[in-house]
Every structure is written in C-alpha cells, then in structure tokens.
Amino acid sequence: MKLVRTEDAVGQVLCHDITQIIKGVTKDAVFRKGHVVTEKDIPVLLSVGKDHLYIWEKEEGMLHEDEAAQILYDICGNTFMHPSEIKEGKIELIADCDGLLKVDTEKLNRINSLGEMMIASRHGNFPVKAGDKIAGTRIIPLVIEAEKMEHAKKVGGGVPVFGILPFIKKRAGLVITGNEVFHGRIRDTFSPVIEEKLAEYQVDIVGKEISDDQPERITECIQKLLGQGADLILCTGGMSVDPDDRTPLAIRNTGAEIVSYGAPVLPGAMFLLAYYGEDRIPVMGLPGCVMYARRTIFDLVLPRVMAGEILEKKDLDILGEGGLCLSCPVCTFPNCGFGK
C-alpha cells in the first residue's frame, strides 16, 4: 500500500476503514476497506480529517477482494440462483425458485481448507424458497494471490458447489389401511396429516382408498391408484413387525422394488421406501408416528422425492447422525438439528 493525497485518490482502493464521528449522532465507518474512492467522496474524506489516504497498489499476480469474490461465486453458483451485489469481498447466493438445495459437501470442505476464503451455507437436501439466502462467501484479506484463486477453481473442477432441484408437480394416491378405519369403528385421522404436508408442495391428490388389513386388498388399492395416474403412492399404517401389519407385504406384491424397510430415524424407524415400474414411481409406507409426531422421517424424505430424486438405501442409512427428533415443546424445524 502507499500514501497519497486525498484529492489524488479518485479511482483508488482504500486499504482500511475510514471512521466518521459526529457527537450524539454517529460513530461508524463512513467508508470500508476495499472501497473505490469517487469524486464525491473527497469532501467527506476531508471532513473527517483525512488529508492523505493509504491505498492499494495493484501488484502483478494479486487480485482485489472483489475480483476474487467474483471468482468464488463462479465456483459456487449454478442455475436457479443469482448473486448479491459484491461488497467488501462478500457475495451471497440467492435462490430463484422453490426447490431442494444440493451441496457438494466434500468440495465445500476442500475449498474452505485453502485459507483466505470461506463459504458458509445452509444444509443440503432441505427445501429452499425463491428469495432465500443459500450461502454466503467471502475473501478474507483485501488482496489475494491470483494463483490461490486458480487453485480454488481447480478444486471446483468446473462443477458448481451448489445446486437447486426445482420441485416437480405430482399426482398422489393415498391408501389408508386398518380394519378399524375400514369398518368405520374410528374416524380416519391420518389423511388430514398427509394432506397438510402435501399442501406445502405442488401435489394433486388423484384418489384415496381405504383398505382393511388384508394384503391382497391393499395391493389392489395401490394398483387402482396407479391406474388413475398417480405418480406418488403413500400408504399409511400397518408398518410394524406385528403379524397383522401387512402393508410392507402388500407393497412388495405390487412388484415394486423395495429400497429400504426401516431407517435410522426417530420418529420413523419403520418407514418403507419403494419404487414401482420403469417410471420409478415412489411408493412409501408411512408408520403411525407420522400421524401424531410433528416431524418424522417423512419430512426428510418428501422434499427429495418432490424434487425428483431417486433415493438409494445409502441415502437413508446416513441419516442416523441428526436423525433423532427431540420433540421440542415449540417446533422450529427445519431450523434445528433434526435431519442434519
């Protein structure tokens, strides 16, 4: 950096904050380090006693924080998102649509380990809405070696750190099981819960079937809804290991491929996920906890299904850490540790 007369500093980059103190009014930085001095800034700088300024000298092989910040955004940014204005080496990523946030965690960690730059984000595999802040990035020093930013680009490998999978409109079919509901002994209280959760997405319910506990009947109900054009099947109840809980058998008998029966999540350990046919139509078996617990494994899996992801068993197997809902008196999900 070098010292110059303030009147000669137009177009130069400040190397430090300039503080303005007005008794009883303000004590704050009127200009931040990295600010590019303009003609209209000169009277303000003189009014705070700055006859001379320390400015950044352009050096071969060095980048200003804002130049480097743009490179960092290029490493992170993807379709369905846009950058905020660059300020003091900082850029935020903003979602352009509702969808599922995807994060390349390994790449994120590798870039953060390089030093002098940082990326902080939301957790991946959770929903975001248009206008939501996805991540914030920053170059730490005022200037950074161009070589270091080139290395960061190599780590990025040309594939963005973040992505958004827009939610897909689906047609859902509900199969409510249980002799007690089928014979009218009790009221169906499961459907309203499922319908409320589906209402958060673009879902049309094409039909609802109520079945007794006979697996043949449950299988028929699933196939009927598939015939009506359902591309998402949700079966409620009959998911435990009790001899008379036959929903898993009924789902298997449709010819659907079982991905997993059971998951390391509480509530929701008896959850079942399967896919039917060449179109890989999701078929879920929802245990009773989905009806009475505020948040369960269904809340973790549904957004990914609505984004069109085809989940594998390993996607469920890794949910154990963070898979314990604490049933807080006031639920703040997803702003909590559940699923993370």
From TrEMBL:
Substrates-to-products reaction catalysed: adenylyl-molybdopterin + molybdate = Mo-molybdopterin + AMP + H(+)
Keywords: Magnesium, Metal-binding, Molybdenum, Molybdenum cofactor biosynthesis, Transferase
CDD domains in alphabetical order: MoeA_like
Record-annotated MoaB/Mog domain positions: 173-307
Name this polypeptide is given: Molybdopterin molybdenumtransferase
EC number: 2.10.1.1
Gene3D superfamilies reported for this sequence: MoaB/Mog-like domain, Molybdopterin biosynthesis moea protein, domain 2
UniProt record similarity statement: Belongs to the MoeA family.
